[in-house]
Amino acid sequence: MTSSPDPASDDGILLSFPKGLLGFPQLTAFRLFEPPDGYPLKFLQSVAAPDTTFTCIDPAAVKHDYEVPLGTEEAEALALESLRDAMVLTLVVIPEDPRRMTTNLAGPLVINTRTLTGYQIALNADKFPLRFPILARD
Amino acid sequence: MLVITRKQEQSIIIGGEVEVIVLGISKEGVRLGIKAPRSVQVHRREVFEAIAAENLAAIEAKSSVLNAAALLRAAQVKKPEDR
């Protein structure tokens, strides 16, 4: 049995994305929460448009050596004093056959857990796949 | 669309705070330098569009998220616990 976190968990945390997500610049306030029985997936739900809910995951659960190269500019934009204050999430795409779900390692969300402010960062898609398979193929 | 001709080392200034400089022109392409405040994100169009498309695709597929989560939990049991 995996130890799933408290299913009756709180309402999640409110996060601010001043620039929105790429393609969604107008959505800047989000609620991050884990749906019941949703572990390890999380939902990032727009406060203004709750129908717009992104599925995401802690990429460390998918690819242990995944590291976002944080240039100082990005760290500064995030006002990150230390990388320990950063939470990283990647968005998950679930196709009709969920076994083929992927996560986007090229566009991670980096969140300052102190200020609860996040940005989506665009990485080089040659090195960081846009569609990294989450379930290892046997 | 505004069209401007620029030579190497010439630049344009947008909105008083973004400068786009032509660094070099060759058969391979035009090399541009961009000076912008940190609050302005600069992306190659195709990178921006690819990530925006994945973002759109990541909007909750209600029916399948819990199913997918269950698959992930099942798979993680098999995974060695390494960090």
List the helices and strands and how they pair.
The complex is a heterodimer of chains A (138) and B (83).
Chain A: E1 13-16, E2 29-33, E3 41-46, E4 53-57, H1 72-77, E5 86-93, E6 102-103, E7 109-112, E8 117-120, E9 132-133
Antiparallel strand pairs in A: 1-2, 2-3, 3-4, 4-5, 5-6, 5-7, 6-9, 7-8
Chain B: E1 11-14, E2 18-25, E3 30-35, H1 45-57, H2 62-78
Antiparallel strand pairs in B: 1-2, 2-3
How would you describe this structure to a colleague?
The complex is a heterodimer of chains A (138) and B (83). In chain A, strands 1, 2, 3, 4, 5, 6, 7, 8 and 9 form a 9-stranded antiparallel β-sheet that branches. Chain A is built from 1 helix and 9 strands, in the order E-E-E-E-H-E-E-E-E-E. In chain A, 4% of the residues lie in helices and 29% in strands. Chain A is mostly beta strands and 138 residues long. Chain A is globular. In chain B, a hairpin with a 3-residue loop joins strand 1 and strand 2 (18-25). The A-B interface holds A 2, 4, 19, 21-24, 35, 37-41, 43, 52-57, 60-61, 64, 73, 76-77, 91-94, 96, 98-99, 101, 104, 106-107, 120, 122, 125, 130-131, 134-136 and B 38-39, 41, 43, 47-61, 64-73, 75-77, 82-83.
List keywords for this structure.
heterodimer, A: 138 residues, mainly beta, 1 helix, globular, disordered N terminus, B: 83 residues, alpha+beta, three-stranded antiparallel β-sheet, elongated
